Design the sequence.
């Protein structure tokens, strides 16, 4: 019997809703993440590709590397999708790791199930390119898509973790500039508060894989001299009026679930049509993790939202 199973037999599950398999997987992620920042950044960037399924190129879709507004991107075009519907996806990774390739499998699934064309954005990463590089890249891609004929009324922007924060920052920046907004946006386990003031960071530290000291490393890489409460860095603190309909998903056991809860309250108070689903016992960005309970349900909820908001 494994050491993990022996510990579980003695003390019971770490969370009542966790199976042996889920607890084992979360413990692996928990212990790796707490040591990941000891590695050189280039090794961290390689390691994230090990955590997700390798991307492929099935026969039922077309993959086209391209540049939009000068930003490297990947078009994912399922053959059965409606080309008039568009998903723009901004990957997570603390603004310093992750890529369109590490997230290609997940984005492809969204594109297939929602019946849309998807564009994955390879925005610049910190610390080589701190704020506002990622936001500038997201806005350039959006402008290039509109110039190419993409209808904003049939487009959705989505992202997980830091990509969820970047999604919200992009919406705020577009609104403030008077530029067209997408018909909706999805924030998946979004990181919205780089001041790290959410109580759940410490309350859920024993369950999730994003401890405070690791988050602080990501903050330092991304910000440099920008205040952490800047509304385009921590869009939790932005004005939220005038934003399009939003879907927010989070895990009950994740470190930054309070970012989602607080944002949902503020968005609703500002008159925004915002829906929040917090999935029982789930950790950060669980919807990307194959085999995690509730992941399929979260993806179904997400793809229904994308399909409905791009219906025209």
Sequence:
């Amino acid at each position: 019997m494994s050491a993990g199973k022996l510990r579980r037999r003695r003390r019971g599950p770490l969370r009542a809703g966790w199976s042996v398999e889920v607890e084992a997987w979360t413990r692996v992620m928990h212990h790796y993440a707490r040591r990941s920042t000891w590695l050189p950044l280039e090794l961290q960037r390689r390691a994230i590709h090990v955590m997700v399924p390798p991307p492929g190129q099935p026969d039922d879709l077309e993959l086209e590397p391209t540049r939009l507004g000068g930003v490297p991107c990947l078009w994912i075009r399922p053959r059965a999708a409606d080309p008039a519907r568009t998903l723009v996806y901004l990957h997570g990774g603390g603004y310093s790791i992750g890529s369109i390739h590490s997230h290609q499998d997940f984005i492809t699934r969204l594109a297939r199930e929602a019946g849309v064309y998807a564009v994955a954005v390879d925005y610049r990463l910190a610390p080589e390119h701190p704020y506002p590089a990622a936001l500038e890249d997201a806005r350039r891609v959006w402008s290039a898509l509109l110039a190419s004929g993409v209808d904003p009324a049939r487009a959705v922007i989505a992202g997980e973790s830091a990509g969820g924060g970047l999604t919200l920052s992009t919406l705020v920046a577009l609104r403030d500039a008077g530029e067209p907004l997408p018909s909706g946006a999805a924030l998946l386990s979004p990181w919205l508060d780089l001041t790290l003031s959410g109580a759940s960071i410490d309350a859920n530290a024993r369950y999730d894989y994003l401890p405070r000291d690791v988050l602080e490393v990501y903050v330092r890489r991304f910000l440099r001299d920008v205040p952490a409460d800047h509304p385009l860095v921590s869009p939790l603190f932005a004005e939220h009026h005038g934003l399009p309909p939003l879907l927010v998903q989070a895990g009950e056991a994740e470190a930054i679930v309070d970012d989602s809860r607080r944002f949902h309250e503020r968005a609703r108070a500002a008159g925004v049509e915002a829906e929040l689903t917090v999935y029982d016992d789930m950790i950060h960005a669980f919807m990307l993790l194959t085999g995690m309970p509730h992941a399929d349900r979260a993806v179904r909820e997400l793809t229904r939202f994308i399909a409905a908001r791009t219906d025209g």
Remarks:
- Residues 3-309 form a domain with the Rossmann fold fold (CATH 3.40.50.1820).
- The chain has a mean pLDDT of 93.
- The longest strand covers residues 82-90.
